[in-house]
Specification:
Blueprint (H helix, E strand, L loop, with lengths): L1 H35 L3 H15 L5 H11 L3 H14 L4 H13 L3 H15 L2 H13 L3 H13 L7 E7 L2 E6 H15 L3 H14 L4 H10 L1
Antiparallel strand pairs: 1-2
Helix pairs in contact: 1-2, 2-3, 3-4, 4-5, 5-6, 6-7, 7-8, 7-9, 8-9, 9-10, 10-11
Length: 222
């Protein structure tokens, strides 16, 4: 009788495992099809099912974070990335999504904290630039000046461009190095350092002669 009970338990366990595997494969197929058809709602639902079936360490949590980010659902992206960072705080890509999400939902001080952590791990001058820009937005001009000078001294990431809104009808993409010089000029203006600001705007234009906002600021100073 005891042996029969063991056999019965084994059969139930195997059946449950097989059913879970079948359900998992079905949800993965649904997810694949949803992404092909660009149905983000079904894709998110399938990811939730896959995560529930695979457990808290499912790699699909990362995919869910990226899907929320691409859909500009920054609050959900922040919540997922925050959860992921608890178990893997060294994941630079997830930390960057977390920082951008905080910035996008208006949690600027928290975003600065995360960008500072990110900078320690990435040593990327764009992240130092982001810190300076957010400190400028918070009117922390002395801190912003330190951050932007650090960004300027770091090895340049020539692949990155920054988008500036020139007016309601025109945005301009600017390489990172002249963007850093321009932000430094804005910070110096707020610190009433007009001579230094003029030099920063001139440097921005030397690096990128078509920089509309730098031209405008330089004309204003002169």
């Amino acid at each position: 009788m005891k042996n029969l009970l063991y056999i019965f338990t084994f059969i139930i366990t195997v059946s449950a495992i097989a059913q879970t595997a079948n359900n998992l494969e079905l949800e993965k197929q649904k997810l694949k099809q949803a992404l092909i058809y660009s149905d983000k709602t079904v894709a998110v639902n399938s990811m939730f099912s896959i995560i529930a079936l695979e457990g808290p360490n499912s790699i699909y949590k990362d995919s869910l974070a990226y899907l929320y980010f691409n859909e500009r659902n920054f609050l959900s992206c922040f919540l997922v990335t925050n959860d992921l960072l608890k178990s893997n705080p060294e994941n630079v890509n997830i930390l960057e999504l977390n920082a951008i999400s905080l910035e996008s939902i208006g949690a600027i001080e928290k975003a600065v904290e995360k960008y500072k952590l990110l900078l320690l791990k990435s040593n990327n001058n764009y992240h130092a630039y982001k810190i300076a820009g957010l400190q400028l937005a918070m009117s922390k001009f002395d801190e912003a000046l330190v951050s932007i000078k650090k960004a300027d001294e770091m090895l340049d990431n020539a692949e990155i461009t920054v988008n500036f809104q020139v007016n309601k009808n025109y945005n301009q993409n600017v390489p990172l190095k002249p963007a850093i010089a321009y932000i430094q000029g804005l910070i110096e203006l707020n610190l009433d350092k007009k001579a230094e600001a003029k030099l920063s705007f001139e440097r921005a234009l030397k690096l990128f002669p078509e920089f509309s906002l730098a031209k405008s600021k330089l004309l204003t100073i002169e």
